[in-house]
Amino acid sequence: MRETVRRASTLALLLALGAGLAGSGLAGEAEDAASAAYGQVHSAFGRKDAFRQSATLPLTSDATPMQTLDGETAFPAQLTAPSSDAYLTVLAQPAGTGDLQVVQVSQDTDLDGTPDALYTVPFWVSGVCANGVIGCQPGTWSSCRFHEWVADGSGRVGLREVPASSLGGCYCLNNDCGSNLVWTNLALVLQDLGGGAVGAAQAARPDFSVSEVRVDPPTITYYGQRVGDAAPGPATAVTQQRYYRDAPALDADAQTELLTQSADPESLYSLTTGAMTRAGTGASRSACTVERSVTLEEVTWADILEDRGGTEGSFTVAIDPVTGQTYVQWVLGRYTASSWMPDNSIVDQTRDLYIARPERITRAVLTEVRADDTTLVVLGGTVVFGQPRLCEFDGTGCSRTAGNTTSFPNLDVTAHFRNPGLLQGNARVFVGNNGEGYAVIRIEVDESCDPVEAAANLCAGFEADPDCTLQDESVDGVATVRNANPTGLVPLGETRTITGGSCVLDVTRAWWRKERTYLCADADAFDFADAEERLGAIEGSVAFGAGTLTYTDRRRDETGAWVTEDGSIAVGLAPAPGECERACKTRRSRENTQAGSTGHVTDQRLSTEGYDFFYKSCGPDDTCPREAGEELLIPCQCIDGFAEAATVLLSLRAAQEDLICSDGTRK
Asked: Which pLDDT value is given to residue 665?
């Protein structure tokens, strides 16, 4: 349906424009105006140097204003902070051997206008690379060592020795490759030296940007800004460099800004999303989230056990001095010696314990039993231990001797503490005369924090709505659904450190946050059946010839009946489009002294002369924009370079394979 409306709208617009142009006779004027506008845009932005002058410098320097395309109005447009006098300067001085005897890099790292760092290369430079330099025995290509540009955290540059394979785009400078190579190509040499040094500095300090480069042999100077330190702006402006080493903050700030914009119905975000919600369709897009939250609940021994009292005994809480674990000492019976009479009696000493969290009881051990004359330990009605002396009790009498017996059984009785609810403990003492008895149970508990988990599913309504379909889903930043199709990507589980009170716990979950977008059909969707009928009639009958467009329209009249009408529009003859973008080919000679770990070009070739080739788009006047020293090879025309490109690619592929031996190891 959306495609139907779009095509109908486009056709209607074309018919209206065609009628307007034909009726007013402005077709020729429109063509002339379009050609003139194209010429202005191409002149301002169609070439590298023109784009730099028209866009790059005005946006990064206060010395160059932005201008309108006709050049009549100039205005300031700088987006970044003012530059220092010189951000980085490279000085190079060659020696008689052709090597660079002096290479110095001075920097203004804090952009206050005063250089504060100076690095001098501690050897003669025999070759230059895109990211470093090569030092050999002066005037020769022997005993060569390879060095890469690096920078510290403040952006101060230096060199470190690396294998030859770590460098790229290298070439030879000294007399082993030719004569006067440096003086002949000094501007290029300075650009390569400076490019490597400033690239290393920017890798360490990405908040610096280069706005202008000036070559004044024997020096090259880079002017730069610290991005984000621009002139005063809105108080809420956020500098982007704060996200370089804190990427998660970018998502958090974006969500905060989204919530702020969503709450303001007059904001650009609200106006845009509101306009797009029902733009020519019978459906709306809605965003929602499913977010998991984990909090920590502190658990103490009081949450696990509760002493409900009894006839004799005690209940105390202590901490093991060795393990630091909390335990409860539960005593059944009486410590006092010879405290029970009369003779030949049975004394039941009970105590109740309420178990609220049995899963938190890690271990229960019967550690000590005292008997005078006999003690049975009963838990929940089950005898777990008996400690007799020389006493045969038949219910009416007991033969006895003086004294008592103490045992340390260390018997594991954890199984009796595994059910929630009330547990009755009993020290049943058989007394011959003036006896006593007790049992001591050590109950160890787990007081670690409990994770309490919840999921806020704000998408539940869309999930249950049959008229809604999932269009996009991102799980913890991983796109799992895009344009209603699964991507096949699955996020890895993430571990988060949760804190709450005195609790700290690492929690791992398969996902934490899901962001979804649903497309839901509106209940009051428009009926485009008539529009489709009319579109089909017009689109199927449109014909163009001799500057006239004819068509057959089918529509409903005032009574609702379908009527058919023929119509025509004189639209004039449009200029025939070009077969291609016209281009030209040029070349410029240069000295080829490329070098690598195996030597340089002059070791393999008789001549160091080479060429750089360029393909350029032609201007409105069909002229080739050549620069000084460029030779025209192919004038402006439709260039088909497929065969040449295919040959170059195949040559590169063959050369690459030559670098690998049959064992797969590069030689």
From this structure: 55
CB atoms within 10 A of CB 42: 16
Closest CA to 341 of 436, 430, 434, 456: 434
- Write out pLDDT tens, residues 439-467: 999 998 888 887 888 888 999 999 999 88
Distance CA 43, CA 54 (A): 10
- The pLDDT tens digits of the residues spanning 139-155 come to 999 999 999 999 998 88
Say how far residue 439 (Cα) sits from the centre of its chain: 63
- Dist CA 492 CA 194 (whole Å): 43
Structure tokens of 498?
Answer: 């949760």
β-pair type (66-67, 74-75): antiparallel
Q: What is the pLDDT of residue 150?
A: 95
The pair phi, psi for residue 81, each rounded to 5°, is: -70, 155
* φ, ψ dihedrals at 537, nearest 5°: -65, -45
Cβ atoms of 449 and 503 within 8 Å: the answer is yes
Give the DSSP letter of residue 36: H
Contact 141, 177 (CB under 8 A): yes
15 and 290 in contact (C-beta within 8 Å)?
no
φ, ψ at 4 (rounded to 5°): -60, -50
Domains of the chain: 2-72 (no CATH), 88-226 (no CATH), 285-297+450-521 (no CATH), 301-445 (2.60.120), 583-658 (no CATH)
Q: Report the 10 Å Cβ neighbour count for 255.
A: 12
d(CA 364, CA 287): 53
The reported pLDDT for the residue numbered 118 is 94
CA separation for the pair 654, 647 (Å, rounded): 11
CA dist 390 and 372 (Å) reads 10
Q: For the purposes of burial, counting CB atoms within 10 Å of the CB of 624, is it exposed (0-12), middle (13-18) or buried (19 or more)? A: buried
Burial annotation 307-327 (CB, 10 A radius, 16+ → b, else e): beebebbbbeeeeeeeeeebb
What's the DSSP call for residue 243?
Answer: G
Q: Write down the mean pLDDT value for the chain.
A: 80
Q: Which residues pair with 288 in a beta bridge?
A: 516
Bridge partners for 291 per DSSP: 456, 513
Q: What angle do CA 630, 634, 636 make, to 5 degrees?
A: 100
Mean pLDDT by 10 residues, the chain (667 residues): 50 50 57 79 78 79 81 79 72 93 92 88 93 94 94 92 88 87 87 92 81 86 70 47 70 82 73 57 82 85 87 85 85 71 71 90 90 82 73 49 76 92 86 78 86 88 90 89 81 83 82 92 71 87 82 88 87 69 89 70 72 85 87 91 84 69 54
Beta strands across the sheet bearing 548-556: 543-545, 548-556, 562-570
556 Cβ contact partners less than 8 Å away, ≥ 6 residues apart: 530, 562, 563
- Paired with 451 in beta bridges are 296
β-strand pairing of 411-412 with 468-475: unpaired
Q: How far apart are CA 157 and CA 204, in angstroms?
A: 9
Those residues whose C-beta lies under 8 Å from the C-beta of residue 37, and which sit 6 or more positions away, are 69
**Nearest partner of 569 among 546, 586, 593, judged by Cα:** 546
User: Mapping DSSP to helix (H, G, I), strand (E, B) and coil, where does residue 55 land?
Assistant: helix
Q: What pLDDT was estimated at residue 390? A: 44
**DSSP letter, residue 415:** G
Query: Which H or E run contains 151?
Result: strand 145-151
